[in-house]
Amino acid sequence: MQGPGPSLKNGVDLQLQSAFYDQNWSTVIRLAEKRAKMTSDSYYEVLKVCAESQLDDPVAKYAAVTALHTYVKDGTVVKDADGIDLLEWATRNLLEEDDFPLTLGPLCVRTAKASSKNRNQMTRCLESCLLHWDLVSAQQIAAIADKSFPQVRAFLFWNIAITHLLAAENDSHPPPRSIQKAEEICLLYEVVGAHGTAADFAKLLDSAIFNPVAQLKQGHKEPFVYTAKKFHSEKNWQNLYIICRDCLSIPDDRGELTLQACDWDTWRLFVTAAGEIRNTDKQIIATVQELLLRSSTAADSKPIYKRNVMLARVSASFQLLESDGPDAVDFSPSSLRLRELVKYINNQASNPSCFDDVRLFAEQLDAAGIDYLAYHHFLSSEQSDDVPELRKHILALKLQYFAATCPQTYNTATATSGEPLSRQTRFKSVYSASMKLHRYIATTSSYSSQLIKDIQSEVALVAAFCLIGLADQLPSSFPTTESAQHHVQALLLLQQQLNSSPKHSQISLVLVQLHLRLASAPEALAIWDTLAIKRTIMDSLAPLFYDRLSTVAPGMMSPLTNEGWQLVSSIKTHYETSLKMRMPRRLIDAFTDGSYSSVLTVPEYVEKLRVSCTRALSLVESVRSERLLGLSDTDFFTETRDGTSMNEIIDYGSFPSWNHSATPAVYQRLRLGPAPSNVRAHLSLLAEALQQTLSYTPPSFYKVPLAGSVADQKYVIEYLGQIANSFSKFLPGAASRCTESELPYFEVASLLASLVPLCADRVTGLNELVAQLTGAITASLESQRGYLAAFTSKSDIGNTMSLFQSLHRIVLLRDTAVAVKNASQWIVSYKEKQKERDRSGQSNLPKDVVAQIKALGVAADEALKQCRTWIMQLTKDTKSGGVIEGNIKAFVYGGEEGKLLKGVVTDSTVFDLVGSWRKSLAGWQGVHWL
Questions:
Q1: Which of 22, 313, 742, 910 is 20 to 30 Å apart from 235, CA to CA?
Q2: What's the helix, strand, coil split of the chain in %, to 5?
């Protein structure tokens, strides 16, 4: 691309090129018409029409669209791809994406047919159809290319891949063709698996060439992986067992196992399948044991596989063998499964991934077995600078933390004292031991090495997790002084550790959540920036930072600041770039490279990205932030309808997971509320639509005539009715997907969307209906105010911290009150205008109704004033002067846990936190309270 449009084709004279790139459209029209008469080349006719469409004349603007429809209707052939490019450019903003298959797509097919020996023209037409996801036209062009260039093997598989994609939409069956390369074999499996019968797939598995075992012998593992996943999803345990057994049993020339499929995923599937069918064949357990023995012997000479085989032995002992009594007796392992688990731990204790390997198995142990692992297996030993020994100490701490979160160990006796221990006592014990090890590591001679600092970072995480466990908070929990104290202690400990180990990803992710939970958004942003999240994973990781950000730091996303503009732009640009066309350019690259697995996965990825919860909620955050700051916004997410199912995706895989799966993970405890979901995304978009509709005021220069005013009011009434109808579809069952503040906000928004049309239409029994609705709305406002008022009963550091953790609730109360006030004002304004139009008074609202509506406005005003007072109180409590610094230090170092932080957490780290609060509160000063 150059100049204002596409490149003109070769052979166009310089005078015409200069006029085109200078946007001198009148000259282009004149010269193109002249060249068309002289050369009889239809390209110049197309160029002339496209130039006319660039004129300011409203009629001429649609010249290219008119010509395009005429070409399609009359069967005209545009003889070269350059003409197609011109038409596509000239109509780019005048045609919908769905119009392409009916207009430019057929023209591309005709051009390809007319230029069947011109490979360049044909591939350009094919690329255009693929980028606009016109599979019908693309399939026709691919078939022409395959037929016209039989010597080009790539065209054959382009044709197959596109036919498969088209068949997936139309539920038809693509024809089979010859296959050679690995990517082509993967495509064959995809096609047969998606469109073939069970017999077809069985025939493929019986093929001497294409079956997974034969392919694995050639070094191609993908067919086996696809087959195993397919059987697992279908719960076809017998065939899954057979395919895994055969692939794990492949021998080399000497008869020894090659271990080509000896990864943990394969063993896991194999043992799982064997466990499901072990009662149908008594030889299965013996077969598994024999294969494990042979693999163990082979793995001795290939240490890279030893861990996988040992882990498979542990898995088999848990899934294939019946439990033979308690797991531990007299502080010693008694069951076979615990003995196998202990063998694995002894061998892999110095491996950083050891705990993650054994956690799910440890969950299946009884209380005695868990207690043995946590408190008796690792006998206390002298501290050492040796890295393997330090790893063992960390593993012991993780197991003790794990035991504290296990339901089996609640109120059970420990192996050492025999006395029952509460969860809190266990957390305190692990925290104390962790801080002792943390201090020791800081004194070692090798502390300057990054490896030792990374080990210390893991110890700091264990200690911080214990503090978070002591806080015992969920997003729905009532903030207490003690819980706030533990959260601040955990934050400062990890922040101090991050200063020693910058860019430690696990600490950074936990800190981002802690800072947002405690309203320290500027520090959260600084840490988030160091993570440098790549575009390819932005959709799954962005909610960790962006979700509900505007409710704790409205000023952070302000477009009026460079920082806020960059923050919003970073995620908005990702979607704008990725979704600029129906399909991305890399789809063409995948075809060119013969990467057919990518060809099949890219379309699914892009369509999920288009309806991503992250995309919807990031827009909501941006719009809400601007609305809070009194700024107008014109962005609308128009690709959703009530029937659209938003793609729910968020990746917590990078967070440490050291707790029992039956208890909430740390990331679940620290986040501001439930993860992004289809229901909340729809409700949030509906709430923003309601806010924008009720708060809209026409520009001052726009003088609305009486007739126009009536039309505007009818539009608002009808649109709010649609919003109310949509709310009714998503509110039932929304409680588990929203915070305790979001749900009443959405409920009030739904009631307001129903209240306005009711008052406008003057339905029968209006007084009673309005009384019920206004009563529910007022009760919701009072309930939210009453909850927050508990934090202002006295002014101390504990209440200040609790109020910081409640900013999300304040914003939702503010939004609820603003919606109520705007609805009240709209109804009163509508009543006044009706009164002006109808002097008879027959269309007036009853006085009781008007009084109730005005009372809503008064209640909303009181709530807004209260919200503003709370923010002013926080600003006052954190003002400069050293008082807050002294209070927060006393707060952090208080209690048994706080004493252990002295000498570890520095004053500068505490002051940085206070500075972050002040910076965040400065952004609140721009919030409009009406």
A1: 313
A2: 70, 0, 30
The four Cα atoms 777, 783, 785, 789 give a dihedral, to 10 degrees, of: 170
Q: HSE-up of 20 (CA within 13 Å, CB side)?
A: 24
Is residue 383 classed exposed, middle or buried when 0-12, 13-18 and 19+ CB atoms within 10 A define those classes? middle
Q: What is the 3-state secondary structure (H, E, C) of 190-215?
A: HHHHHHCCHHHHHHHHHCCCCCHHHH
Structure tokens belonging to residue 311: 């882990």
Could you tell me if residue 181 is left (phi over 0), alpha (psi between -120 and 50 degrees) or otherwise beta?
beta
**pLDDT given at position 637:** 54
What is the crossing angle of helices 306-319 and 283-299, to 10°? 160
Cα 846 from Cα 853, distance rounded (Å): 11
CA distance 567 to 545: 11
For residues 64 and 86, give the distance between their C-alpha atoms in angstroms, rounded to a whole number.
Answer: 9
Give the least confident one: 561-575, 806-820, 840-854.
Answer: 840-854
pLDDT surpassing 80 at residue 710: no
Q: Do 116 and 79 touch, CB atoms closer than 8 A? A: no
Give the model's pLDDT for residue 178: 57
Name the nearest CA neighbour of 797 among 710, 874, 881, 689.
Answer: 874
**Exposed, middle or buried, 177 (CB in 10 Å: 0-12/13-18/19+)?**
middle
DSSP 296-318: HHHHTT-GGGHHHHHHHHHHHHH
Q: What is the mean pLDDT of the chain?
A: 88
The residue length of the chain stands at 930
In whole angstroms, what is the distance from residue 874 CA to residue 817 CA?
A: 20
Measure the CA–CA gap between 442 and 1, rounded to whole angstroms. Answer: 59
Distance spanning both ends of the chain, measured CA to CA: 49
Alpha helix positions (H), 300-449: 306-319, 336-348, 354-362, 367-375, 387-405, 423-443
Tens digit of pLDDT for each residue in 418-475?
555 788 999 999 999 999 999 999 988 777 788 899 999 999 999 999 999 999 998 8
Asked if residue 797 has pLDDT above 70, the reply is yes
- Do 801 and 488 contact (CB within 8 A), yes or no? yes
How far is Cα 85 from Cα 891, in angstroms, rounded to an integer?
Answer: 68
Residue 175 has what pLDDT? 44
